[in-house]
Amino acid sequence: MNLNDTTADIGANLEDVRRRIAAACARCGRDPADVRLVAVSKTYAASAVREAAACGQRVFGENRVQEAAVKVPQCPGTLEWHLIGHLQSNKAAAAVRLFDWVHSVDTPKLLRMLDGHAAAAGKRLRVLLEVNVSGEISKSGAAPDAVPEMLAMVPDLQTVEVRGLMTVPPVAEDPEEARPHFRRLRGLRDAWAAEYAVPLEELSMGMTHDMEVAIEEGATFVRVGTGIFGARTYPEKEA
Ligand SMILES: *Cc1c(COP(=O)(O)O)cnc(C)c1O
Q1: Whose CA is nearest to atom 12 of ligand 1?
Q2: Domain residues of the chain, as ranges?
Q3: Tens digit of pLDDT for each residue in 160-199?
Q4: How far is it, in rounded angstroms, from Cα 184 to Cα 60?
Q5: Ligand 1 neighbour 167 (Cβ under 6 A)
Q6: Is the minimum distance from the CB of 227 to ligand 1 under 6 angstroms?
Q7: Probe target for ligand 1 pocket from 36, 102, 207, 211, with the most ligand atoms within 8 Å of CB
Q8: 161 CB-contact burial (10 Å; exposed 0-12 / middle 13-18 / buried 19+)
Q9: Which of the chain's ends, N or C, has fewer CB atoms near its CB within 10 Å?
Q10: Which residues touch 18 (CB under 8 Å, ≥6 apart)?
Q11: Which H or E element spans position 129?
């Protein structure tokens, strides 16, 4: 596996991203402590993660299980790892070993398998349900009308905690184009949390170019890669 070193000034970039988060929170009256930064290290080598960790970053995101299997053991054991890319159910066991959070649960089968593996391993696993709010065909994530079946499973889960929702809006030049999708995710969350009595307190939405809009719409996790590590030089594939 070809993981890249980075020439980015990770410390300066992290400060810049944290400043952007703080400024967005100030504009909409939110506490910056309620917005957690997931540093998306996909395609970059463990050395980049270690450098970010040395600058105080503790939460990291990866989109492929195989890549994380190489990288995670080369990083400090104190870090928290989030899987943000599509997960095939045949990799659920490996994902449970490597990750603390999975943002991309999109089928009842995957939710059941993660719960089985986490229970067997005695591991606490927190998950988000990925919702395809735009209806864009190429996107992963469950259609909104497929999510209630997963919410109805929550009382029967052994170890997995369903903590909220995640979305990836269609790619767009203007960050404002993401706003209706972020707003829709929040609206679905409010409705489902009430109907299914599941708190769903986390909203994972917003990346490097649209994190401010996501924060204004209620994001509690922003997933930022290029803004910290620099532009990626090979296209990331799905897990
Ligand atoms: C790569 C990726 C990100 C980070 O995107 P940047 O534009 O580099 O900040 C966020 N979320 C998901 C699901 C990703 O795959």
Answers
A1: 84
A2: 10-228
A3: 999 999 999 999 999 999 999 999 999 999 999 999 999 9
A4: 26
A5: no
A6: yes
A7: 207
A8: middle
A9: N
A10: 37
A11: strand 125-130
The model's pLDDT over 40-52, given as tens digits with 9 standing for 90+, comes to 999 999 999 999 9
Pairing of the two strands 125-130 and 160-166: parallel
213 lines ligand 1 (CB under 6 A): no
CA of 40 to the centre of ligand 1 (A): 6
CB 128 within 8 A of CB 36: no
- What is the best residue among 63, 134, 222 to mutate for testing ligand 1's pocket, by most ligand atoms within 8 Å of CB? 63
Question: What Rg value do the Cα atoms of the chain yield, rounded?
Answer: 17
Is residue 223 in contact with ligand 1, taking CB distance under 6 Å? yes
pTM comes to: 0.96
Contact 63 CB / ligand 1 (< 6 Å): yes
The arrangement of secondary structure in 10-228, i.e. its CATH architecture, is Alpha-Beta Barrel (3.20)
pLDDT in tens, 59-97: 999 999 999 999 999 999 999 999 999 999 999 999 999
